[in-house]
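Two folds, back to back.
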Amino acid sequence: MIINKIIIRNFRSYYGDNTFEFKDGLTLIIGDNGDGKTTFFEALEWLFNTSQTEDKTERVLSAKRKKELLDNETDSVRVVMYFKSEGDSDKIVEKSLDFTRDGDSIIPSNYQFNGYDCIGSERIMRSGKQMLDSCFDTYMRRYCLFKGENNLNVFEDEKALNTLVEKFSDIRDFDSFVLLTDNLEITSDKAYKKELKSDDKISKLAKTYEMLQIEIMTKIREVKSDLERQESVASDYQVRIEDLERNQEASERYQEIKSRINSLTDRKRRLEQQSTENYNLRLLDDEWILCAFPGILREFQVKAAALARTKRKLNKEYITQQARLKGKQEAYEELTILSNGATALPWDLPDLQTMQEMIDEHICKVCGSPAPEGSDAYNFMVRKLEDYKRHLEAQKKENE
């Protein structure tokens, strides 16, 4: 019998419905004094008691529920067990009893003790007593009803243990098997010796088999010894596995920290790459979000151009100073200012801002020649700037 679930309703200290579901393996019921451990087994004992056709005692009713009962109100005490017999369908056995308050008295009624065979979704009703007797032997139940050790008393009653062995064990047949084995051994030994005497060939074979038997027994001993070693090794591995399980949390924390370190390392690498970028150029080259605000963009472009001029001027002055210190007159002559004192262009310009700068300063910074306002050189730069603007506008529309 395998118990799957037990429901206890209003039985002594169990108030209302209380459900206990059991899984495979050993089940332990623990709790402090007064938590209901003993009452749990007494409820099962009440359910398993098939010797009484009815049990209408008021003592099984929950004291709390009895106190709450109103006049003419009815409630029930119920114990239900869901179980499965070996190689059989699911079964249910249920014992219940109704109680009604009549003034200061509690009147029991409607005692039921039913069993059910569950075949698919269908339940076939049977007698609860007959079902328990067929699934749980009455004699065996005497020693298994949770308080059966009081009846067993194997330490004081010499016959108690013999009774259990005779009822539940096949050990009583052991002597007959031993006797039969001895007789077979004697008979086989006689036949063996007889054949040895009557046939030399068989005698030689017997000696060969004896040697083979000794060899096999030696191998068996070696295998047993090897098994013992393997058990020792397995025990060591078990200890190591337990150590690994205990260290699992530390390993998981290590992996988490390692992952965070890798993440921070990747972030550091990205930040280092970003720190080498020229964002002043990126804002313009990538047509960044400032392009949606022309006024802010123009102001930014003017300031960026002014900053570029200042940077080039400071760079030129630094190189000039270094050239003077080193006495490199050629470097000084190459970095001299243009005809009207304007700052020379870098090698990869002009762009839109630089062309506007040349017009404003009246000098061509490509060849270094002056370009006064109204001169051919000045008018040429103005036309080139207009052409450049129209080219950029056409390119912008094409991109859109």
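---
second:
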Amino acid sequence: MDGYAIALVFAVLFGLAIGSFLNVLIHRVPLGNSIVAPRSSCPHCGAPIRIGDNIPILSYLMLRGKCRTCRRPISPQYPIVEALTAGLSLALFIKFGPTLQYLLFFLFCAALEVISVIDLHHRIIPDILSLPGILCGLAAALLLGHVSFVSSLIGAIAGGGILLLIAFAYERLTGRTGMGGGDIKLLAMIGAWLSAWSLPLVVLIASLSGIVTGLVFIVTSGQGLRTRIPFGPFLSLGAVIYLFFGPLITRWYLDVLS
């Protein structure tokens, strides 16, 4: 096995390990609990998770998705998050190689992943994730130079401003609150990381994917227009797609126009 192949394996293992930690964040951050102590435990019986039962994905398969102590089912969210994080780590390593850019954008994608799952479960986007994420995006612009600091700053301001205007207009027209402050701060974070130029495409992807998903849920849930779907996961999806394919999509769109 050559050096590059070994590096790819390391990227996957690194992603699996971080994915396991992301599950801790997803569970504890909304509750305001410490992410350091106590040790992870079964959410049903409270039995501490053994070290040998905490191996990403593998332990879930060996235990057949059940707690060793009480035999009640473990949420499939745990191996899904671990596998997704490993996939993101591998894709980012292939794109950027063993660079600071890989590490920082992995941090960005991991934060989006945690935010998305928390938003799906609790319909909230914690400020403790989005606000430091804005600052980290501005710092990344200075460290990496992938975008100018001015563009990053404008992206943060414009990202928050766009959704703030949309939320204000929706509330004025319908008399209902349609978008939370968490979504506004999340788009500001995305703008800080990816620059102001990314925002139109990110919002477009998020809106289209959100509309399609919303229509499916409206039809299948039986709740009609009362169905409420969090927007954070779709903004995160738009950001990740832009990160990997933004320039390619933009060139294709300009070619179509011309």
